[in-house]
Amino acid sequence: MTEYTWVRGAYPAAITPRGVVVMATGNLDMAHQLWRLLHEGGDLSTLMQRLTATYAADLASLPEFVAVIPDGDGIHVAVRGGFELVVRTHEGTQSITSGSVIMWMEHRF
Known about the structure:
Elements: E1 13-16, E2 19-23, H1 28-39, H2 44-54, E3 65-71, E4 74-80, E5 84-89, E6 92-97, E7 105-108
Antiparallel strand pairs: 1-2, 2-3, 3-4, 4-7, 5-6
Helix pairs in contact: 1-2
C-alpha cells in the first residue's frame, strides 16, 4: 500500500516518484501545478515551460526553485535563486547553485 503524508512547511514542494520540485515561500499554487505535471509524466522541459508561461516569460519574476527529475539512468536538475543542491555520485559530491544568473542552472548526472 502506498501512503502519502503532507506536512505544512515554509517551502512548498511537489514530490512524486517522477521527481521533486521545491519552490520558494509563497508559491504553493505553482508547486501544485508542477506536481500535476510530474504526476502526468512531465519532464524538466515541461516544468520549465509551465513556469515561464505562468510568468509570461518575465525571467526576473520567476520564483526560486530546485528541481530533481529522473532522466533515463541519471537525473536532470535545475536550480534558481538561493537554493543549493548537493548531489553525491560514485564520482564524488557536487554542489549546484544558480549564482547570479537570471534564468536557472541545469545539470545532468
